[in-house]
Amino acid sequence: MKGKLTGTELARAACGLFQAGGFSARMVYLFDTSRAYSGQAIIEVFWGDRWGAEKNQ
User: Fold this and answer.
1) Residue 51: its pLDDT value, please?
2) Quick one: pLDDT at residue 27?
3) What is the pLDDT along the chain (57 residues), one digit of tens a residue?
4) Sign of CA dihedral 11, 8, 24, 49
5) Contact in structure between 30 and 40 (CB atoms under 8 Å)
6) Quick one: pLDDT at residue 57?
7) I need a labelling partner for 8 at 20 to 30 A (CA). Which of 14, 18, 47, 56 fits?
8) CA distances to 16, 33, 45 from 42, in Å
9) Rounded to the nearest 5 degrees, what angle is found at the Cα of 32, between the Cα atoms of 38 and 35?
10) Are 22 and 28 in contact (CB under 8 A)?
11) Structure-derived torsion over alpha carbons of residues 7, 17, 53, 1, reported in degrees to the nearest 10
């Protein structure tokens, strides 16, 4: 879709911003293998002593 970002593109940008800010961050890809086209991309950030992700709706 022209002019619209996908969730994967937004996650990639957010991951880069966290990394530029000095945080350890990584992309995570989630799939429901029982459904077609069910993939999602999220990021995890290392905070304190663990990796974590926040659900955003």
Assistant:
1) 95
2) 95
3) 577 888 889 999 999 999 999 999 999 999 999 988 888 899 999 999 999 987 665
4) positive
5) yes
6) 55
7) 47
8) 12, 17, 10
9) 60
10) no
11) 0
Buried (b) or exposed (e) across 11-49, using 16+ Cβ within 10 A?
beebbeebeeeeeebeeeeeeeeeeeeeeebbbbbeeee
Q: HEC profile for the chain?
A: CCCCCCHHHHHHHHHHHHHHCCCCEEEEEECCCCCCCCCEEEEEEEECCEEECCCCC
Measured distance CA(37)–CA(55) in Å, rounded: 20
Q: What sign for the dihedral angle of Cα 35, 33, 51, 7?
A: negative
